C-alpha cells in the first residue's frame, strides 16, 4: 500500500466520522457516488474535440483536477470499506491485461472494448 | 506525488506505447473509458441491498477488485496526460470539502448532493 | 414508430439546427451526454435508502422529472442520428430478454447482472 | 402519454411481476441500472473517432440498438414507478431549454455544459 494513499484513507475516515456520514457510505452508495463523479469528469470533455481535450485552458484544468480528486476520494473510500488495496489491485490487473492484450497483436490495430 | 502511483503511471505509459494505443488515449476518450469502468463497478452492486453490499462473497470481492483497478488505471492515465497529480489534487479537494461541509452543520443530518 | 416520439425528434432536430449544434451532435458525443444525464438522474438517489427513493417529495419529483426528460431527449437524438427506432428496438429487446430470462427460472431468486 | 410507450410500460410491469423482480426495482436501483446501461451504450463509441461514430457497421448498429433499447426500457420502468410521463416531461423540458439557450446567442458558438 502506498503511504500517501493510506494517509488519504485515514483522513477520509475521520472526515466521514465527524459528519456522521458512515450511515450513507455503504459500498453500494459509494459505488454510485463514484460513478456520478466520473460522469461529472466526463461532462467537461463531452462537447470538445479530441484535439481540444488535449489543450485545456488553465481554468478548465483546475475544474477537471477537482473532478479527478472526487473520483479518487470515492475510490479510496470504497476500497477502504471493502478491504481492497487499490494500488496492489491495479498492479495485478496490469499483469492480467498484459496477458489478455499481447503487445504484438495490438500494434497499429483497433482498440477493442472487451475487458479494459 | 506518491512513488507507487508514479511507478504505475510509468508502467501504463509503456503498456500503451507497446500497443500503439497513444492515438486512442486522448483525455476525452480516457474520461469516457473511466466513466464506463465506474459503471461496471456499480453494476456489481445495483441489485444488492446496502447491507448485502457490505458482505460480498470472496468471488465477488475479486471481481470488484478488478473493476476498482480498472477505474484507478484510467484515472492515472488521464491524470498523466493532463499533468495533474491526482494525490495532490485529492489532498487539496479535501481542504475545500472541509470548508464547504463544516462538521458541526452535518452531524445526524442529511447527506446532500451538492459538490461532493 | 410512435407519433409522439417522432414529433419530439423533429422538434429536437430543429432545436439543434437553430443553434448550430449539429457539429457537436455526433453519435459519440450524444452517447457521452446521455451517459452524463443518466448519472445526474442517479445523483438524486445516491444517498437515499431504497425506501426513501419510493417516496420522493414533490420538489424532488420535479427535479427527477427534468433529468428523466434530459435522458430521453438525448436518447431520441442519438437514435435519430443512427436511424434506429427506439420503441421498435425496445419491443424486440423485450422478446430477447424473455428468452434469456425465462420466468420460471427467476422467481424468488436473485437478480443477475448479465445482459440486462 | 404515447400509446406505444404505455404498452411497453404495461409489458414491462408484467415481465417484472412474472419474475418476482418487483423487490429489486426500487427507483434507486432502476436509476443505477439505467446509468449502467447508458455506460454500456457509450462503451461502443469510446475508442471511435467522432467521424467513425457516424458510420457504424451493421453488426455494431445492431448491438448499439440493443443498448438503446435497454436504456429506454429502464427509463420507462423508472418513470412508471415514479408516476412521471416521460414524453410529457420531455416536451416541458424542451420549453425550458429553449428559454435557457436562446437560439440567437448560440449560433456558431461553443456548446456549454450547464443544464443540458
Domain count of chain A: the total is: 1
- The stretches of 5 or more residues of chain A where confidence is low (pLDDT under 50) are none
State the helix count of chain A: 6
Instruction: Specify the oligomeric state.
Output: homotetramer
The H-level CATH homologous superfamily of chain A, spelled out, is MazG-like
Distance between the termini of chain A: 23 Å
The coarse overall form of chain A would be globular
Rg of chain A, rounded, reads: 17 Å
Named CATH architecture of chain A: Orthogonal Bundle
For the largest interface, the chains and their residue counts are: A-B, 71 and 72 residues
Topology order of chain A in helix (H) and strand (E) letters? HHHHHH
Helix/strand structural class of chain A: mainly alpha
Q: What is the number of strand segments of chain A?
A: 0
Roughly what is the average pLDDT of chain A, rounded to an integer? 93
- What can be said about the biggest beta sheet of chain A? none
Report the helical percentage of chain A.
55-70%
CATH topology of chain A: Helix Hairpins
Could you name the CATH class of chain A? Mainly Alpha
Strand proportion of chain A, as a percent range, falls in under 5%
Note the topology.
The structure is a homotetramer of 116-residue chains.
Chain A: H1 3-18, H2 27-43, H3 50-53, H4 58-82, H5 86-100, H6 103-106
Structural commentary:
Four copies of one chain form a homotetramer. With 116 residues, chain A is mainly alpha-helical. The first copy, chain A, has a single domain (3-103), classed as Helix Hairpins (Orthogonal Bundle), CATH 1.10.287.1080. The first copy, chain A, has six helices and no strands. Chain A has helices at residues 3-18, 27-43, 50-53, 58-82, 86-100, 103-106. In chain A, helix 2 runs antiparallel to helix 4 (58-82). Chain A is globular. Chain A starts with a helix and ends in a 10-residue tail after the last helix. The model of chain A has no long low-confidence stretch (mean pLDDT 93). Chains in contact: A-B, A-C, A-D, B-C, B-D, C-D. Chain A binds chain C through residues 24, 29, 32-33, 35-36, 38-40, 42-43, 45-47, and chain C through 24, 29, 32-33, 35-36, 38-40, 42-43, 45-47. Chains A, B, C, D: Pfam families: MazG-like. Chains A, B, C, D: This is Nucleotide pyrophosphohydrolase. Chains A, B, C, D: It comes from Pseudoxanthomonas daejeonensis.
Amino acid at each position: 500500500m502506498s503511504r500517501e494513499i493510506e494517509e488519504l484513507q485515514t483522513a477520509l475516515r475521520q472526515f466521514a466520522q465527524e459528519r456522521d456520514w458512515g450511515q450513507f457510505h455503504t459500498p453500494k452508495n459509494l459505488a454510485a457516488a463514484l460513478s456520478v463523479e466520473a460522469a461529472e469528469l466526463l461532462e467537461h470533455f463531452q462537447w470538445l474535440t479530441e484535439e481540444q481535450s488535449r489543450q485545456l485552458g488553465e481554468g478548465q484544468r483546475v475544474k477537471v483536477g477537482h473532478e479527478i480528486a472526487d473520483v479518487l476520494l470515492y475510490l479510496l473510500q470504497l476500497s477502504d470499506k471493502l478491504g481492497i488495496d487499490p494500488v496492489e489491485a491495479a498492479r495485478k490487473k496490469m499483469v492480467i491485461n498484459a496477458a489478455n492484450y499481447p503487445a504484438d497483436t495490438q500494434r497499429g490495430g483497433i482498440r477493442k472494448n472487451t475487458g479494459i
